[in-house]
């Protein structure tokens, strides 16, 4: 398993009424998340 | 429970991803929309669903609408990302195995969240959908391979077209490549 830092992000797609995104950062054994709406 | 960064716009995500790429982090960016359609051998199969698409076809109902949105929004995100990256060479592609090996800087993939995978009680369902798909991608990455839940024998790649339109690659083969589709697991 590669030990580099990876970022996994997802964007919800559709009308601009209320959509979301999420971003996960994985570095070694540490994982953090942030998210937003648009 | 909302995360610390909740409430931020899509522009903020693009900025964060640009910073990630410029810091040499490997980025896998998923969109919750069909990113490829089948290119059938015969006209009789035009409009047919993708293998594994369950009852959520790309060509009807909500699937058709979100496919149209994706054609614009994926290209917009990638174009904005490209502008922030500038002249920095970027290896962009749709091959998850290559991304796992570190041969791609930016991987595009399709998030599939439907039915029992959705939290009907959520106060922010779109963020939760995005989170569920990203966590499932991470799970598969940690298992060593990101398998695809939806396939087609021959495809027209909307993701590949968006990459080309944004100027992030000149590899025309991307138009024939399907991104990996990761279906969020059912809740329960």
Shape of chain A: elongated
Strand sequence of the main sheet of chain A, in spatial order?
1-2-3
Please write the string of helix (H) and strand (E) elements of chain B.
HEEHEHEHEHE
Which oligomeric form is depicted?
Answer: heterodimer
| Largest β-sheet summary of chain B | 4 strands, parallel
Low-confidence stretches of chain A: none
Helix content of chain B: 25-40%
Termini Cα gap of chain A: 34 Å
Q: Radius of gyration of chain A, Cα only, in angstroms?
A: 13 Å
Rg value of chain B: 16 Å
Residues in helix, % of chain A: under 10%
Tell me how many strands of chain A there are: 3
| Distance linking N and C termini of chain B | 18 Å
User: What's the number of helices of chain B?
Assistant: 5
Describe this structure in words.
The complex is a heterodimer of chains A (38) and B (188). Chain A is mainly β and 38 residues long. Chain A has one domain (6-37). Chain A has strands at 6-12, 20-27, 30-37. Chain A is elongated and about 40 Å long. Chain B is of the alpha/beta class and 188 residues long. Chain B has one domain (10-183). Chain B is 37% helix and 13% strand. In chain B, strand 3, helix 3 and strand 4 (106-112) form a beta-alpha-beta unit. Mean pLDDT of chain B is 92; it is low at 1-6. The interface between A and B is large, with 30 and 52 residues. Strand 1 (6-12) of chain A pairs parallel with strand 1 (26-32) of chain B.
């Amino acid at each position: 398993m590669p030990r580099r830092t990876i970022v996994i992000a997802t964007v919800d797609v559709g009308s601009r009424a209320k959509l979301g995104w999420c971003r996960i950062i994985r570095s070694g054994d540490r994982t953090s998340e942030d998210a937003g709406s648009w | 429970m909302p995360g610390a960064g909740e409430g931020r716009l899509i522009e903020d995500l693009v900025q964060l991803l640009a910073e990630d790429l410029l810091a040499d982090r490997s980025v896998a960016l998923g969109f919750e929309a069909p990113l490829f359609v089948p290119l059938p051998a015969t006209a009789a199969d035009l409009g047919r669903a993708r293998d594994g698409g369950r009852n959520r076809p790309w060509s009807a109902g909500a699937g058709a609408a979100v496919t149209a949105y994706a054609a614009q929004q994926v290209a917009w995100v990638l174009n904005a990302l490209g502008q922030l990256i500038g002249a920095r060479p970027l290896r962009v592609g749709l091959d998850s195995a290559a991304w796992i090996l570190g041969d791609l800087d930016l991987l595009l993939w399709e998030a599939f969240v439907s039915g029992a995978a959705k939290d009907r009680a959520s106060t922010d369902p779109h963020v939760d959908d995005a989170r569920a798909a990203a966590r499932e991608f991470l799970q598969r990455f940690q298992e060593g391979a990101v398998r695809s839940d939806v396939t087609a024998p021959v495809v027209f790649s909307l993701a590949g077209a968006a990459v080309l339109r944004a100027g992030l690659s000149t590899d025309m083969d991307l138009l024939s490549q399907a991104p990996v589709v990761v279906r969020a697991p059912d809740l329960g």
